[in-house]
Each structure stands twice: as C-alpha cells, then as structure tokens.
Write a structure and sequence with these properties.
Order of helices and strands: HHHHHHEEEHHEEHHH
Number of strands: 5
Shape: elongated
Number of helices: 11
CATH architecture of the largest domain: Orthogonal Bundle
Radius of gyration: 32 Å
Number of domains: 2
CATH class of the largest domain: Mainly Alpha
Strand order of the largest sheet: 1-3-2
Structural class: mainly alpha
Distance between the termini: 121 Å
CATH topology of the largest domain: Cytochrome Bc1 Complex, Chain D, domain 2
Helix content: 25-40%
CATH superfamily of the largest domain: Cytochrome c-like domain
Largest sheet: 3 strands, antiparallel
Strand content: 5-15%
C-alpha cells in the first residue's frame, strides 16, 4: 500500500453508530409489528365465515328462518305474530319447540329441524324457542355431548347446548310475562260442540264477521270473511284456538277478553267457550 494512500473507512450513521446496512432490517421488523401477527394476504381466522349449523345468534336465525312469515320483529307479517305478550305467556315451551321442529299440520308452517328436512340443529331451535318464549339462557360448550340433549357441533369438535339461566342472555323481545288470571289454556282439553259454539260466535264474533262468518259488506266488498273454504283449509284447529285467545292485534282483531265494537263491557270468553267456538269453526269445513 502506498504510504500516502488513506485507509478505507466504513461510514456509520450518526447517533446510534449502526451500519447503514442494518436500517432495512429494522424497517422490515417495524412493518411486521404494525400489521400484527397476520402479514398482508394471509386471512385472519377471526374473519372466517361461521358455518350455518354453528350460528347461534337469535337475530340471524330469526331473520333467515322466521321473519318472512312472522314479520321483522315478530309483528306485521302474514302469519300470526310471535312477538305478542299474550301468546308468549301462554304457549308452552315444549309446544313451541315441537312446532318449530316438526311444523304444524294443515298449515303453511314447515318443519325446521334437520332431521325433518329443515336447516336448523336442535340447539339452534332451542335458541329460537328460548328467545320467543322469553326465557333467559346461556350457551354451554362441552367436549362430549354424553347423555345431554342433542346439541350443535362448535369449533374444534366441541358441542354447544342451550340451557335456561336467569342470569344468562336476555331475550331480545324481553322476558315473558305471567299469563293473565283466567286466560283459557293454549291447548284445550275439553270437548266442544258446534251448537254451543254458535251461541259464543253470536256474542263474540258476529258483529265483525257476520252472523254465519260470511263477512260484512263494505263498499260492495265482503270483508272479514271467516267461513271461507280456502281459509279453513289452511288453518288447523289449534291455530284457530290461538287466534280466538290472542286475537290478531296487528290486524285489529280483539283477544278473548277485549271489548267488542258493540259491547264495551264484553265478558271474557271462558276455556269452554273457546273450545266450543273452535268446534263451530271446524264444523264449517264440512259444510263447504
């Protein structure tokens, strides 16, 4: 080396004394920290879609399976309202589960259970039942279903059961109310006769539906026809009983106890009178 040649000196950055070749590594490391544990292009497991049979959110289940017939919030649909305090108070939980599971004969209500050709698991049906009935609940994950009721598979093979719990998830439509004193039973256990039913119809129904259920003339049009072959063919006796008891508040139809237009002091129908009235309506199917 020439005596006057200066030695090569590697430049270093000011302050930290780090080689400029280290900066790219630092920048890359900081970039990874800012994007978290999932580099760009790699999906976040939290964003994965939930399989249909693992959805346990009432709002989603109701919107996809019930709202088309019973209304967005359980009201104002073509089918009877589910978000009705009187209905929610008197319908037995087991009856509601059976209807959702197997459908209702002689009506447009289909079966929703997977074993009956529907889209829902037993646990999903229980979520709907608990919410509609107004029973707080919680979701319990278990490694094995064991001898518990049939449940829904969750993540990693775990099982999900729906258990009533006063301190659990509060129903979206509120907790159920106690049935009014003297309200007729949801499912009658007596025998009715159309002869007695005719007397009940005259007292409770004829003012709006006509003397024989033929409806009322209104501007050249018959309205509120109940003695109709199509209507009677599409409704079961149990559904008729439910209408008589709860009415259709969304359509202005009074319940078993509400005042009538011609009788503000209307005496509520008894369980036997409801049974007799349904017997009359059912008899009209054979008179068409």
């Amino acid at each position: 080396m020439c005596a006057f040649e200066k030695p090569t000196v590697r430049k270093r950055s000011r302050g930290l004394g780090l080689s400029t070749s280290v900066y790219p590594c630092i920048v890359a490391g900081l970039s990874l920290l800012t994007v978290g544990c999932h580099p760009p292009g790699r999906p976040d497991p939290a964003d994965r879609p939930v399989p249909a049979d693992q959805v346990m959110d009432f709002a989603v289940l109701y919107r996809k399976n019930c709202s088309g017939c019973h209304g967005a919030e359980g009201k104002l649909g073509p089918a009877p309202p589910l978000n009705d305090p009187l209905f929610r108070a008197i319908v037995p939980e087991e009856e509601l589960a059976a209807i959702v599971t197997s459908g209702r004969e002689n009506t447009l209500m289909p079966a929703f259970a997977k074993e009956n050709g529907g889209p829902l698991t037993t646990a999903q049906i229980q979520v709907l039942v608990k919410e509609i009935k107004g029973i707080p609940y919680r979701l319990v994950e278990k490694e094995e279903a064991g001898d518990t009721p049939p449940s829904t598979p969750g993540e990693n093979g775990r099982r999900v059961d729906v258990v009533a719990d006063a301190g659990g998830i509060s129903p979206r439509w509120g907790v159920r109310e106690e049935p009014p004193k003297g309200v007729p039973s949801y499912r009658g256990c007596r025998d009715g006769t159309k002869q007695r039913g005719a007397l009940v119809f005259a007292r409770a129904c004829a003012a709006c539906h006509g003397e024989h259920g033929q409806g009322m003339e209104n501007g050249g049009e018959r309205r509120r026809v109940i003695n109709d072959p199509v209507f009677l063919a599409l409704i079961s006796n149990q559904a008729l009983r439910r209408y008589v008891i709860t009415g259709r508040p969304d359509l202005g139809m009074p319940s078993y106890a509400d005042a009538r237009p011609h009788d503000p002091h209307f005496v509520p129908l008894t369980d036997q009178e409801v049974t007799d009235l349904v017997a009359l309506l059912a008899s009209w199917r054979g008179e068409q």
